[in-house]
Design brief:
- By secondary structure, this protein is an alpha+beta fold.
- It folds into 3 domains: 110 residues, no CATH class; 64 residues, SH3 type barrels (Roll); 99 residues, Alpha-Beta Plaits, CATH 3.30.70.
- Helices cover 52% and strands 20% of the residues.
- The protein contains 8 helices and 10 strands.
- The strands form 3 sheets. Strands 6-5-4-3-7 form a 5-stranded antiparallel sheet. The chain has a 3-stranded antiparallel sheet with strand order 8-10-9. The chain has a two-stranded antiparallel sheet with strand order 1-2.
- A hairpin with a 3-residue loop joins strand 4 and strand 5.
- The N and C termini lie far apart (77 Å).
Length: 307
């Protein structure tokens, strides 16, 4: 409606002779007003078309990640169309505008290399899908949950970092240039498989009954996470079946024994959902420690300053 009204106004101004005699110095006002109305009509039409197309498309896309990608692509396309349309309406030189955009674009390529690399990085993220909104990722030295993927930057809700030593949110929001995706390592904890393997390490003395200690650690992990682990491992095996990788994946937790100079480290390895890894490690550690404390004759802890 607004675009039609503006287009009608741009036609009525010259036909009715409005502002025909007005001038700013040697510049006639009427052509400027007509061009401005044309440009406003083009901009309004592009905005309205974007809103309609975006609302229809987003309503048909159930996946939240895909809907955000579609919205970003539409913004880029309609923004480019609107920019060309407005420039053409203001100059009445459509072909000249297109040629000028080519020349300017060539010059801008050298002047704005980093933003252009970030835009290319956004296209790469859109096509190759190394991550999407909602994933827990690590880009270069920054780790967090993806809350937005823009044209030039990716915004993360930071996990860990300088303020927090555990794998918990720090409360900070970190903006990472999309150009980083093209040159740095990207680690995604959740895009294909939402579980990760994690460990709980407990130091015991050499006098410890290792067979009992290992079995007790496995039992406590099984009691707490056994069913969830089995579902996760089955999902992992299903993923492996689609690849050429041949791995032997244990169905339950395991304990690795590492010999140190003054004690033995028992490292309990188990599967956990990525976002619950710290919580599950704490819970498993508390259960195992309580179990060991109930058996002081079979589990000994190292003492001394070397620990």
């Amino acid at each position: 409606m607004a675009a039609a009204a503006l287009a009608l106004a741009s036609a009525l101004v010259p036909s009715m002779g409005l502002l025909a005699d007005a001038a700013l110095g040697d510049i006639a006002v009427q052509p400027l007003v007509v061009r401005a109305l044309h440009a406003a009509a083009v901009l309004s039409a592009a905005t309205g078309a974007y809103l309609v197309v975006a609302s229809v498309l987003v309503a048909r896309v159930a996946n939240r990640r895909r809907s955000q990608d579609a919205r970003n692509v539409l913004r880029l396309v309609f923004g480019a169309v609107a920019a060309v349309g407005v420039a053409g309406a203001l100059t009445d030189q459509w072909l000249g505008v297109l040629l000028s955009l080519g020349v300017v674009g060539f010059a801008v390529t050298f002047a704005l290399q980093q933003p252009l690399l970030s835009l290319i990085g956004w296209v790469y993220v859109l096509v190759k899908r190394p991550y999407a909104v909602g994933d827990r990722v690590e880009i270069a030295d920054t780790r967090g949950d993806v809350i937005e993927v823009g044209f030039l930057t990716t915004t993360l809700w930071e996990v860990g970092g300088r303020l927090v030593t555990s794998g918990q949110p720090s409360g900070r929001v970190v903006t990472v240039p999309n150009a980083q995706v093209l040159s740095a390592q990207v680690v995604n904890d959740t895009t294909l498989f939402e579980f990760v393997w994690t460990e709980v390490t407990i130091q015991v003395a050499y006098e410890t009954d290792l067979a009992f200690a290992r079995e007790a650690m496995i039992e406590e992990a099984e009691a707490l996470l056994g069913e969830e682990m089995r579902r996760g491992i089955q999902a992992y095996r299903d993923r492996l079946d689609r690849t050429a990788v041949d791995l032997d994946v244990r169905e339950g937790p395991s304990v690795n024994v590492v010999q140190e100079e003054s004690w033995i480290e028992l490292r309990l390895r188990f599967l956990s959902r990525s976002r619950r890894a710290t919580r599950n490690r704490n819970a498993v550690y508390e259960r195992v420690l309580a179990r060991f404390n109930d058996e002081p004759e079979r589990v000994k802890f190292p003492v001394g300053r070397n620990r």
